[in-house]
Amino acid sequence: AQSPLPSQRLPVPDSVLHMFLGTEEGPEDDSAKHGGRVRTFPHERGNWATHVYVPYETTEEFLDLLDTLLPCAQTHVPRLVRMEAFHLSLSQSVVLRHHWILPFVQALKDRMASFQRFFFTANRVKIYTNQEKTRTFVGLEVTSGHAQFLDLVSEVDRVMEEFDLTTFYQEPSFHVSLAWCVGDARPQLEGQCLRELQKIVDEFEDSEMVLRVHAEQVRCKSGHKFFSMPLK
């Protein structure tokens, strides 16, 4: 909860108070706190790593599937770790100055205002690395709903261009990352391991329904702050 503001100050609208749930200090750059991952760009005071995505709301059945997939993948790469939260990216991670966060989010809200909710399916196992190949991910690629994600990215890219930020990849592979590890583990995960993981997905009971998800909102994470943009 927000502490009361001094009486001599003008009141701050609730909408603004609810947008800023974290502190204004940037996170300290301690790789030990995030599994040894290396930052794509160094943290500087007043700069906020910002990311736009569609959250992936899990079900008990989805987590059961993940509990089957992960041990199989770990027989090939034991250092794989399950993701703490699940999403589908609509942007690369970019840097925003603190005073640009609210204008950036408002521009996103304006762009998202007319978008309808939609169903999508992510059921094709695929192995990914980040651009620097310092991290590897086991993911589920979108097989239906791709066109709607492209439309969302088109609008997010327009906002990125307005703020002179990097746009998304030219031919994106929309996916939900399930697990990750440090380093480039593609040689161990592609081939036999990938076939085993895909077979688990294909044979999982009611997998078609388990992996069909309703996209209801877009979120933006900037530093420790989260902003939600519901779709119509």
UniProtKB/TrEMBL annotation:
Report the catalytic activity: a 3'-end uridylyl-adenosine-RNA = a 3'-end 2',3'-cyclophospho-uridine-RNA + adenosine; a 3'-end uridylyl-uridine-RNA = a 3'-end 2',3'-cyclophospho-uridine-RNA + uridine
- GO MF entry, a single one: lyase activity
Name its GO BP terms in alphabetical order. U6 snRNA 3'-end processing
Q: Which InterPro entries match?
A: Cyclic_Pdiesterase (IPR009097), Usb1 (IPR027521)
Query: Does Nucleus count among this protein's keywords?
Result: yes
Keyword Nuclease assigned to the entry: answer is yes
Q: Name one GO cellular component term.
A: nucleus
Alphabetical UniProt keywords: Hydrolase, Lyase, Nuclease, Nucleus
How does this protein assemble? Interacts with PLRG1, CDC5L and PRPF19.
The job of this chain, per UniProt, is described as: 3'-5' RNA exonuclease that trims the 3' end of oligo(U) and oligo(A) tracts of the pre-U6 small nuclear RNA (snRNA) molecule, leading to the formation of a mature U6 snRNA 3' end-terminated with a 2',3'-cyclic phosphate. Participates in the U6 snRNA 3' end processing that prevents U6 snRNA degradation. In addition also removes uridines from the 3' end of U6atac snRNA and possibly the vault RNA VTRNA1-1.
Q: What HAMAP family does UniProt report for this protein, alphabetically?
A: USB1
Under which name does UniProt file this protein?
A: U6 snRNA phosphodiesterase 1
* Annotated source species: Crocuta crocuta
Gene transcribed to yield this protein = Usb1
